[in-house]
Amino acid sequence: MSDNNKIYPLISIIMPVYNAEKYVKKAVESVIKQSYTHFELIIVDDGSTDRSAYICEELAKNDSRIRVIHKKNSGVSSARNTGIQYSLGKYITFIDDDDEYDEKYCEILLNSIEKHNADIIKCGRKNITIKIDGSITRTIDRFYPKSCFVNIDSFWEDYYEFKKYDFIGSVWNGLYRADIIKQYNIIFDENVLHGNEDIIFNYSYLRNCKNIVIQSDVLYYHYYRLSHSTSMKFHGDQISNRIRSIIDEAELVKKYPEQLNLVYLDGIRSCFCLLIATNNKEIRNKYIKIIERELKNCKVERPKYLYDKKLSITFKIEIFLIYHKLYWVYFGLRRMRMMIINKII
């Protein structure tokens, strides 16, 4: 990159921060080390009660590209909306306070989105699970096999093939055009507090896109910290939020019956996956009834999924158990699988 950054588009990087004093410095340093240097890092301190705000302010003293905004604690959606409000860039992207960028994250994504004049670009990610003692239990790269540029109709027509690589459910692995966000007033729902805020935002954004770039490079490092991440805990509103996102998803692919079938199958399965986080049978039974009630109108071709080559054997077994209401067999197998994967048996 040339040192004359003024000729390059500005990227606004938004980082919500809440009580992440152990991790936030590394997250910020991964931004500072970007090979593409024409960015602004907007850190939104969401009412932290630890040293997070102080650490961010100290880092900002040494880099004029960093701005720190302090606000009353209102959740990650509110913090991101605040960052969007203060952003000045042509493109907007996000990073969590305990994650990291690859040093070429901005450079590769910017070059590709500009080359194709695209509305959005999404890249691969590395999922790293860390136990309470700090040891890494597993690392998985999730990426689409080949970089591609597709119009939005083609994307929805083959939606599940793209979705299964996990880049639709998050906002921190890609660039968004600021003019689209601001023209259509696309914001994070501040009533969504415990997951699914990303995917709901993405569906709102994709409704206003003409095309998308899928970048195969693994450029974002996402840490599942068992002692820190809200995604590792069960909250009742996760189910209602997930059901809402399934309905949004179904609306977007309704022209494509095969994709609609897969959306419902995957949606039902994902609702049950959320219940794995609790061992309380009363809570599970309560939310199983809610799932059954809210999704009873899903028109799923039940036998067809058994022969669908897009679905893994594990997926088919789990759907079979759920459909036949063998819930406790399902939960037992899922928990055993997780224990084996995380090497904690």
Structure, explained:
The chain is of the alpha/beta class and 345 residues long. It folds into 2 domains: 5-231, Spore Coat Polysaccharide Biosynthesis Protein SpsA, Chain A; 234-341, no CATH class. The protein has 13 helices and 10 strands. The chain has helices at 24-32, 52-61, 76-86, 105-116, 152-157, 159-163, 178-183, 197-206, 237-252, 257-274, 281-294, 313-323, 327-341, and strands at residues 11-17, 39-46, 66-71, 91-94, 100-101, 120-130, 136-142, 148-151, 174-177, 211-225. Strands 1, 2, 3, 4, 5, 6, 7, 8, 9 and 10 form a 10-stranded mixed beta sheet that branches. Strand 1, helix 1 and strand 2 (39-46) form a beta-alpha-beta unit. It is globular and about 60 Å long. The mean pLDDT is 90.
The overall strand count is 10
Q: What is the name of the CATH topology of the largest domain?
A: Spore Coat Polysaccharide Biosynthesis Protein SpsA, Chain A
- The radius of gyration is 20 Å
Ends apart, CA distance between termini: 49 Å
What's the number of domains?
A: 2
Q: According to CATH, what is the class of the largest domain?
A: Alpha Beta
Structural class: alpha/beta
The CATH H-level homologous superfamily of the largest domain: Spore Coat Polysaccharide Biosynthesis Protein SpsA, Chain A
